[in-house]
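User: Okay, second chain of the day. Same drill as before: sequence in, structure tokens out.
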Amino acid sequence: MIALADCNNFYVSCERVFKPWLNGKPVIVLSNNDGCAIARSNEAKVLGIKMGAPYYQVKELCQKNRVSVFSSNYELYGDMSNRVVSILMRFTPETEVYSIDESFLSLEQIHDPVRTAEKMRETVLKWTGIPISVGIGPTKTLAKMANRMAKKKDSG
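Assistant: Same drill. Structure tokens below.
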């Protein structure tokens, strides 16, 4: 079996680790030069702020709804990503970093993959403050699909 561990709203989650007063409030992170929304909290998604929305188009909506807006901090996100991956590798060294917030993990040698996935989620959240979703499947594609289902379950 293969697991896909994917950090939830990763850039926003990183900002919230160091600014906990943002929890439960709408937050977006903007791309280079503050051009577009590249990460949104669930609260910002509910307001209708779309991924990739140019900031000038949502600026008034953000101001009206007191959305906290941040410029990208790639140094922070890279550091937090490394922390998450190092924790995941404690569960299985067969880890493939897929992107800054996603990793595939081989669970072939794991006796109880579901319990291990639960433990991964708990440990990453406890040690870093970053929430993750984990999908499990016999292939990377099915693990990705399972992860999408897990994200929907986790967010509501």
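The chain is about 45% helix and 20% strand.

User: Thanks, on to the next one.
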